[in-house]
Amino acid sequence: MADFSFWDERYARPGFFYGTAPNVFLTGAIGRVPNGGQVLSVGDGEGRNGVWLAAQGYRVTTVDGSAIAVGKAQELAAARGVAIAAHCADLLAWDWPVAAYDAVVAIFVHFMPSERPLVHARMRAALKPGGLIVMEAFHPHQHGRSSGGPPVKEMLYDRATLAADFADTEIVLIEEAATDLDEGRHHGLAEVTRLIARRPTAQ
Ligand SMILES: C[S@@+](CC[C@H](N)C(=O)[O-])C[C@H]1O[C@@H](n2cnc3c(N)ncnc32)[C@H](O)[C@@H]1O
Predict the structure, then answer these.
(1) Ligand 1: which of 16, 49, 64 to mutate, most ligand atoms within 8 Å of CB?
(2) Is 69 in the pocket of ligand 1 (CB under 6 A)?
(3) Domains of the chain by start residue, with CATH
(4) Cut 0.70: pTM above it
(5) Please, are residues 85 and 74 in contact by the beta-carbon 8 Å criterion?
(6) C-beta separation of 82 from 55 below 8 A
(7) Which strands, in side-by-side order, build the sheet including 59-64?
(8) Which of 11, 155, 163, 168 lies deepest, with the highest CB count within 10 Å?
(9) How does pLDDT run across 87-116, given as a tens digit for each residue?
(10) How far is the CA of 63 from the centre of ligand 1 (A)?
(11) Which of 79, 86, 30 lies closest to 56 in space, CA to CA?
(12) Residue 92 CB–ligand 1 contact under 6 Å
């Protein structure tokens, strides 16, 4: 297992680092997925998105490498009276289900260029035909800003990067945007890239 001590230390602090409210882009995008559908949220952290999705009626699986985050996500789910299947695993080594989900969600989950294509290919393969990728990530223009995102510029994604990674999908939406984040420590003006992509039904 990779070293998740950076994330464990972050999540060991009291409270929820990114809050308990869901990501705003996700709340607008998920209505495209039939209610009751199977949703995988990768790098789900302390569960704000996975727990919210479960409360909307989706059947939710989450994965995060931080055991502390996964424990807090399970506590949040219990406090909200919903069930999630929360796994502690390294996404680079996880035994990803194939053709299993109506949506795969990744909110501010970033990888190095040597790792990113593999993870994005696994996300794509995890979709049922017709299933959706829903992703919001920090754009390279975010580099140096304090409103969120990794300090390593190569881990930030622009439109061309995501379009290439998901070239074998139908792009429903792809945009680079400036947004005012109010999601815990993700706070203030930020540059993001957003993607909604559908696995073709013929594949
Ligand atoms: C910026 S946080 C975002 C958390 C959550 N998606 C949210 O929006 O609140 C990124 C998350 O990705 C997780 N992560 C990063 N690399 C990972 C990997 N290789 N395997 C599993 N989780 C990973 C981290 O543990 C962290 O919780």
Answers:
(1) 64
(2) yes
(3) 5-198 (3.40.50.150)
(4) yes
(5) no
(6) yes
(7) 85-88, 59-64, 38-42, 101-107, 127-138, 186-198, 170-183
(8) 11
(9) 999 999 999 999 999 999 999 999 999 999
(10) 8
(11) 30
(12) yes
